[in-house]
C-alpha cells in the first residue's frame, strides 16, 4: 500500500523531496506557505543535475495543517521547514491537528532540519510517535516561487531515531523511510545514533552559514577574498570539534572537518561557490536559522565551559543582522 506522507514546509529541499517521494509511489500532501498560490496553479518546475528538468505538483496542497481534513492519517510527517526554536506557535503546535483528535501514535515525524538540540520539544509533545532526526546534504535553491534549481547530483539524507534508544518499531520506521527515499532516486543512510552525523553537519553549517550571511559570499568565493578567510572558517570548525568532544559526541574530529572543508576548497579552486541557506535567505530578505545552527551551539559551549570566541563573535554579528531584518520586515 502506498505511503501517505505530509510534507511540511515545501521550499527548495521540500520540493525535491516531494518529487522524490512521488517517484517512490507515495501520496504526498504539501503544506506550502509563501509559494502556495503559484504551486496550486502551476506546480513546481525543477532543473536538477539528478532528476533532469521536470514539472510536477503535490497530490494535495494546503496553507496550514489545520486545513487538512480531520480524517486524514499520515504514515510520515516530514518537516523540511526551517528551524526556528522560538516560533509562536511552536512547531509542535503547528503539527498538532495532524497528530491528535484522535491521537495518531503510529505517524512518524521526520525532522529534516538544521541545527543541534532541536528534537526535544517534539519528543516531549508526542512521546509515543516515532521521531526520526534527519541530516540533509542537498544543494538546492528556490529561485522564484515554484522554481527549483538543483545544480549538483548530491542528494543524501542521514537518519536515526530520537532518542537512539528508541524501540525497534521506531527503528523500523526510520529504515522504511530510508528505503523509500532510495526508491525515489536519492541516497539514504540509517545510523544507530544520528547525533554524530548531525554534529558533523554542524561543522559546515556553523562556519559557512553565518559567514555567508554576513559577508554575502559563497563558500568558494569567501576563501579567495583574503589570506585570513581560511583560518576564520577552520577556526570555527575546530571550536565545534572541541564542543562535540566535551559533549561526548563521537566522530566529530579534525579528520572529519578536513574532509568537509575540502568541498569548499575545491569550489574555490574552480572559481565556483555555493550559497548556503542563510545567504539565500539574506538575499531574499527572509529570516534565517541563526538560533538553531549557531545560538544553540554557543549556549551549549557556555554551559559546558568550552571557549568559542570565533563562533560567539559570528553569532553576535549574525543575530544583529537577523534582528534588523525582522524589525524592518526585510
From TrEMBL:
GO terms for biological process: pantothenate biosynthetic process. Catalyzes the NADPH-dependent reduction of ketopantoate into pantoic acid. Keywords: NADP, Oxidoreductase. Its EC number is 1.1.1.169. It is an enzyme of class 1 (oxidoreductase). It catalyses: (R)-pantoate + NADP(+) = 2-dehydropantoate + NADPH + H(+). GO terms for cellular component: cytoplasm. InterPro entries: 6-PGluconate_DH-like_C_sf, 6PGD_dom2, ApbA, KPA_reductase, KPR-Related, KPR_N, NAD(P)-bd_dom_sf. GO terms for molecular function: 2-dehydropantoate 2-reductase activity. This is 2-dehydropantoate 2-reductase. Residues 5-162 form the Ketopantoate reductase N-terminal domain. It comes from Aspergillus steynii IBT 23096. The keyword Cytoplasm does not apply. Residues 193-320 form the Ketopantoate reductase C-terminal domain. Pfam families: ApbA (PF02558), ApbA_C (PF08546). Belongs to the ketopantoate reductase family. The keyword Ribonucleoprotein does not apply.
Amino acid at each position: 500500500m502506498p505511503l501517505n506522507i505530509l510534507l511540511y514546509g515545501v521550499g527548495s529541499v521540500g520540493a525535491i523531496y516531494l518529487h522524490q517521494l512521488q517517484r517512490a509511489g507515495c501520496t504526498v500532501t504539501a503544506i506550502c506557505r509563501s509559494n502556495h498560490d503559484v504551486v496550486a496553479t502551476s506546480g513546481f518546475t525543477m532543473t536538477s543535475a539528478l532528476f533532469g528538468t521536470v514539472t510536477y505538483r503535490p497530490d494535495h496542497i494546503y496553507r496550514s495543517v489545520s486545513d487538512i481534513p480531520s480524517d486524514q492519517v499520515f504514515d510520515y510527517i516530514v518537516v523540511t521547514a526551517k528551524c526556528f526554536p522560538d516560533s509562536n506557535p511552536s512547531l509542535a503546535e503547528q503539527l498538532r491537528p495532524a497528530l491528535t483528535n484522535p491521537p495518531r501514535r503510529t505517524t512518524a515525524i521526520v525532522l529534516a532540519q538544521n541545527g543541534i538540540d532541536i528534537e526535544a520539544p517534539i519528543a516531549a509533545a508526542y512521546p509515543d510517535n516515532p521521531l526520526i532526526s534527519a541530516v540533509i546534504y542537498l544543494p538546492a535553491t528556490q529561485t522564484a516561487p515554484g522554481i527549483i534549481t538543483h545544480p549538483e547530483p548530491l542528494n543524501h539524507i542521514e537518519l536515526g531515531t530520537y532518542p537512539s534508544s528508541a524501540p525497534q518499531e521506531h527503528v523500523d520506521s526510520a529504515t522504511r523511510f530510508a528505503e523509500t527515499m532510495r526508491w525515489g532516486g536519492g541516497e539514504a543512510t540509517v545510523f544507530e545514533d544520528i547525533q554524530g552525523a548531525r554534529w558533523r553537519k554542524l561543522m559546515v553549517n556553523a562556519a559557512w552559514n553565518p559567514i555567508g550571511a554576513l559577508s554575502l559570499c559563497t563558500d568558494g568565493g569567501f576563501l579567495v577574498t583574503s589570506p585570513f578567510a581560511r583560518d576564520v572558517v577552520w577556526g570555527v570548525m575546530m571550536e565545534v570539534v572541541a564542543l562535540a568532544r566535551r559533549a561526548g559526541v563521537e566522530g566529530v574530529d579534525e579528520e572529519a572537518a578536513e574532509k568537509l572543508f575540502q568541498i569548499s576548497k575545491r569550489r574555490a579552486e574552480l572559481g565556483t561557490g555555493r550559497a548556503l541557506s542563510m545567504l539565500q535567505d539574506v538575499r531574499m530578505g527572509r529570516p534565517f536559522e541563526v538560533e538553531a545552527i549557531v545560538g544553540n551551539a554557543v549556549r551549549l559551549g557556555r554551559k559546558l565551559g568550552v571557549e568559542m570566541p570565533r563562533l560567539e563573535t559570528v553569532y553576535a554579528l549574525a543575530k544583529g543582522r537577523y534582528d534588523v531584518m525582522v524589525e524592518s520586515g526585510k
